[in-house]
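INTERNAL TRANSFER SHEET
From: sequence group
To: structure group
Subject: shikimate kinase

Please process the attached sequence and return the structure record in the designated field. Keep the field labels unchanged so the import script can parse them.
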Amino acid sequence: MASINIPFTFVVSTSESENLQDLLDDEALILKNKSHEIEPYLNGRCIYLVGMMGSGKTTVGKILSQAIDYSFCDSDTLVEQDVGVTTVAELFQIYGEDFFRDKETKALEKLSGVHRYVVSTGGGAVIRDENWTCMGKGISVWLDVPLEELARRIAAVGTKTRPLLVNEQGDAYTKAFRRLSDLFEQRYKAYENASARVSLENIAAKLGYIDVSNITPAMIAIEAIEQIGHIL
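Return from structure group:
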């Protein structure tokens, strides 16, 4: 099978995600100001977003990439394009998880050789040491979202596109929460390897919010830029 080719025109379209112009004026202004503060110190290094399924890596990544004038890439999408399937769920069904993990590692190896990309990684990318070697050439950011919020998000859109959830029993929220709890127990030590951590609970406390569901993707992107700034 052919090696993965990174589509260097793979950038965000305004129809696929929130555009900076669509954000609240104060959010867009804060994003731009904070991105200008860190941009000189990034030196073109890629930013890898890690976190559990449903943590918002793709949505936040697209906003973040626009704010810092980077391109955006989803590693799952690269794998889908390489294999010729439309979803990761389809790939799991046909080839299995090990095949997907091998392809995911190859995609991250390819991405480690480029610059100025915000990369949304798969939820399980953190479990392989070789993936951390690839991501170590850039800056990794863990989007840490409470399990209850993750389960709520996934239940709202359904579990059919989540291959690690399709065989769980029960209502959508219950089976999502149960499986997410198991996965988090297996992965949380790996997530802690990230260069920076963006905690929705910390954002909520800072803003005086009771419910993390009120936190917008732009707020998360702002916090990501702040946390990146702390380590540069």
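Handover comment: The CA atoms of residues 124 and 184 lie 10 Å apart. Residues 7-17 have pLDDT under 50 and may be disordered.
Transfer complete.
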